[in-house]
Design goal:
- Helix 2 links the parallel strand 2 and strand 3.
- This protein is 45% helix and 19% strand.
- The chain has twelve helices and nine strands.
- Strands 1, 2, 3, 4, 5, 6, 7, 8 and 9 form a nine-stranded mixed β-sheet that branches.
- GO terms for molecular function: hexosyltransferase activity.
- Pfam families: Glycos_transf_2.
Length: 308
């Protein structure tokens, strides 16, 4: 019933921990698709064999090129055969029984999109402590996502919604924001819970050594680059979205620009003025400075650029 999609690149045994947290023996788990992005870890061949032999529902899609998590997430999503798709990072931990919780709530509330809370913790015992969920819902999913800044990898959607939305933007390396926006654009109803669901485990020796070296969230320049072009592409793809959502997107783009440039040698007083003005007249300032922002982000050196 539920297809779980994990994009994977050099996560080592953290992937195994993630798979265990998904309760792969549960009847509602139809399949777990691991899309490997051409891992270079020498242990991957042996571990992938172990995973397939240990967990009957595992399907591994092996690739011979590294194209980034956005491309690989779509690859897994389009290959999935379940009625619902659940996406999660392949080095995080899902709290017990969350898939059943999501599925039951989506069916009871006739929702096609569901988000759970993703949190960082230093204590593995925290995972067992959170059990009671309260839910919010909205039939204006895009607006709800933007207002609540829901852009994280703890999402379940119907397969139908994923296909309608076209997955995430494959011109973007990091997929989180584009997946949220595209699903939100086409969703009929979103539900969201404040219950802690996915845990980013910090301070573990293995995560300090392995995950710390391979954690995209540490690469702020890449995050800023992908966030800006996610928004810019979305605005170009959907020029007729309502003005309130357009304003929220543009404000987020300017905020991303300021976060990116404020502590760099390129930063000038005029950049601060642009950022402050965007808070007052975002649409006007966007029209005036749009090309300037594009040129700034296109000149960033230390980012993975896969735009065509």
């Amino acid at each position: 019933m539920i297809s779980i999609i994990l994009t994977h690149f050099n996560k080592g045994l953290l992937l195994n921990r993630t798979i265990e947290s998904l309760q792969p023996w549960d009847d509602i788990v139809h399949e777990i698709i691991v899309v490997d992005d051409h891992s270079t870890d020498p242990s991957w061949s042996q571990n992938s064999t172990y995973i397939v032999q240990t967990y009957p529902k595992i399907k591994i899609i092996q690739n011979t090129e590294n194209k980034g998590p956005a491309v690989r997430l779509n690859q897994g999503g389009f290959a999935a055969t379940g009625d619902y798709l659940f996406f999660m990072d392949s080095d995080d931990v899902l709290a017990p029984n969350r898939l059943q919780l999501f599925l039951t709530a989506m069916k009871n509330q006739s929702a096609d999109l569901c988000y759970g809370k993703k949190v960082k913790t230093h204590d593995l015992n925290e995972i067992q402590k959170h059990t009671t969920a309260t839910w919010e819902s909205s039939t204006n999913a895009l607006h709800y996502i933007l207002k609540n800044n829901i852009m994280q990898m703890c999402v379940m959607c119907s397969k139908e919604l994923f296909l309608k939305a076209g997955g995430c933007n494959e011109k973007i390396f990091i997929q989180d924001e584009s997946l949220a926006l595209n699903l939100g654009k086409y969703s009929q109803k979103i539900i969201s819970t404040d219950l802690d669901c996915v845990f980013v485990i910090l301070d573990e020796e293995e995560t300090t050594r392995v995950r710390g070296e391979n954690r995209l969230s540490r690469h702020l320049e890449q995050q800023h680059y992908d966030m800006f072009f996610t928004i810019d592409d979305f605005l170009q793809n959907y020029p007729n979205i309502d003005q309130e959502n357009k304003t929220l997107l543009i404000k987020k783009a300017f905020s991303t620009y300021w976060k990116s440039i404020k502590n760099t040698p390129q930063q000038r007083f005029s950049d601060l003025l642009i950022y402050l003005a965007s808070k007052v007249s975002p649409l006007k300032i966007w029209d005036k400075n749009h090309q300037h922002l594009i040129e700034y982000f296109e000149k960033l050196d230390h980012v993975r650029k896969i735009r065509t």
